[in-house]
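User: Hey, my collaborator sent me this sequence without any context and asked if I could get a structure. I don't really work with proteins. Can you help?
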Amino acid sequence: MIYPDFLQNGSLIGVTAPSGGINEKKLPSYLLSLEQLKKQGWQIRETADVRLPFVPSAPAEQRGSELNALFSDPQIAAVLCATGGDFLCECLPFVDFAALRSRPKWVQGYSDPTGLLFSITTRLDIATIYGPNAGGFSMEILHPALENSLAFLRGETPVQRSFDRYQPFFADDTPDGSYALTAPVRWEAVNGDFEAEGRLLGGCLDVLESVLLGTPFEDARGFAKRYAADGVIWYFDIFSMTPEQIFYALWRMKQAGWFRTARAFLFGRPAIPNTEYSLFDGYPAALRRALGEGAKIVWNADIGHVKPTFTLINGAYGRVTARNGGGALEMKLI
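Assistant: No problem. I've predicted the 3D structure and written it out in structure-token form, which is a compact way to encode the shape of the chain:
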């Protein structure tokens, strides 16, 4: 596994918009987020598509070209996606992955940027970071989850532990921009408490199943084979899938050979849960049917769209513990 160089004081971060751009509503929090990144001692360079208020931000070829410019620029130490959105997949045919292979650097984002991160790690064996987009640090006083994310960019590897409370997806932040933590966190170990080790890999399940699976822009089966000795801890962020949709997504991935060396599965809290007309008695029943009664599975982990969340490094060696309604994740860059 290739781990790019970490950020130092004065490092230059390239911010680009391979999915959506920053619209007028998002602009104040985005600017505050950039100030927080600058407080870390880092510099920012934006590509031209970032402040285009559209989804997607720009034509596919332009988005690919602007990614390529950051990958090829030796001054750029890391690339952060400006925000999420849709249609990142359109720019993948225009991305010069060879440029990144010749000069590896960290690429970070979450949600629709899954399409880029997953492609880089499974095809190039370059670690990527599933964590806050560039606009995701918009707090006066950063939550520990965000402090952890910044620590990983500096090369630190703090142990991440399940949080006490979370903010429902549609709830507004507090006036100072911090999370409104109103709901209790409880990890559900679907088939019982466990510990597991393996290489971390995953992203937004909605994107992985509907966009990447079976395309030339993923090599999950090859990744699983190359790291068979370590095994894989799969993690999935869920935006709006029903239990049936998750079942069918996992079934297809399993048939495609993605899970042959799986050691455990971590599923985040759905942003928009939908079980009203489900054939399953809740999401865990769908997971158990898809993955088996012997699989090590966590439901409602601190992953994805529902804050606060873990930062996950695709390709890192992880050790996860799920016990008594909570859990922890330690990542090693080996």
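In plain terms: The mean pLDDT is 97. You can pass these tokens on to your collaborator as they are.
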